[in-house]
User: What shape does this take?
Amino acid sequence: MIEIINSKFELLGVISNYESLIFNRAWHGVGDFELHINKEKKNVDKLQKDNFIIINKSKNKVGIIEDAKLDCNNTKTLIVTGKQLKGITNRRLTVTDSYDRVAETEAENVFKHYINNHMIDTYYNDIKTPERNIEWLRLAETQNRGIKTVWQSRYEYLDVLMEHISKDTGLGWNIFIELAQKCAFFDVYEGKDRSIHQSDNPPIIFSDKKRNLATSTITDNSSSWKNTGYALGKGELEDRPLVIVKENDFTGLNRREVLLDMNSIEVSDLADEGKKKLEDYKQIKSIEGSVYQIPNMEYEKDWDLGDIVTVETEGYSEDKRITNIKEVYERNNQTIEINFGDKIPELIEQLRKLNKGVL
Assistant: This one.
C-alpha cells in the first residue's frame, strides 16, 4: 500500500493497485524509487512533485516525488520517480566563508551538527538564514553513537557529506516521519553484527547451501583504486605543503598514486583530511544478489539494512554489511535484492569524484 501525503503531512490519498514499485533503501547514501501505474486509476492525480509516498505505513520507508512522466509506448502508464526522503539533503550545501568544523565528538553528533546548521537552525557564519530552514524537520535525540572523530566541510552537498561520514564511521542515516506530530526526524543508526564471528546475535548466513541466496554476482574492481595519495594543502605554487597518505606500504607495481588537491586545508589538518579523501579511491568489493526468505531469517525481523551478515557462495565466504536493499513489488508479489559491501559507483558518481575539489 502507498499513502500519499503533502509537506504539511496531510493525507491526500491511498494507492494499492499499481503495476509495479521498486523502492531502494540505502545505508550510506540516498536510495530511490520508481512507480508504474495506470494514469486513470484513483488518486494518481495526487502523485505530484514534492509530495511524499509512504510504503506499507512504514515511517522509515518514505520517498519524495521528483518526476512523473507518461510512457511514450503506453500512454496510459505513468512512471513516477524520486528519492528516499533523506534525499532532500541534496538541496543544501554547507555554505560558509571559512570551514564549518566539528571538534572531536561521537559520529552521531557530527552528522547532526551539519543537518542542524544547514537545514534546521541555519547560519551563514554568525548570521541566521531562516530562508534555508526546513520548518518540519527535527533532530532525533542524540544517543552519542559511533566512533569519535573530527570533521570539516565547506560548500559540499549535504547528501554527499552524509555519505562520506557514513562510510568513514559505519553509521547509517535516514529521515523518518511522524504523522501525528506532522514532522520528520533526522537520525542515525548502528547496524547489528549478525555474522558467524560474533555471539551477541543469532547469526545470519546467506548461502547456496541454505538455499536462501537465489542469485549472486561477485565484484572485485580495482580500476579506480589508489592507495598512496600526495595531499597538497593551502599555499601558493612551490610553497604548498605536501603530506603523503597511505592505505598501506604498497611498493612497485602495487603502488597506485593520486594527487589530492586540498588547496584550503591547513598543514595541521592535511594528514587527517588526506586520509579521508583517499577513501574515495578504494577498491570496490561487493556481492549483489536476490534472496529468499526462510524461517528464522525474515527481512526486517531477523535482519535488516545496515546489518553485518555472512555471505557464502561459489567458494567465497566473507562478512559483509548490507548496504542497499531493493524492494520490488509486482502483482502482490515482493522480491528482495541486496547489495553486500561497497556499492558499485555509477558513471556520474565516478565523474563527480574525479572532479571533486576542496574549496
About this structure: The mean pLDDT is 89.
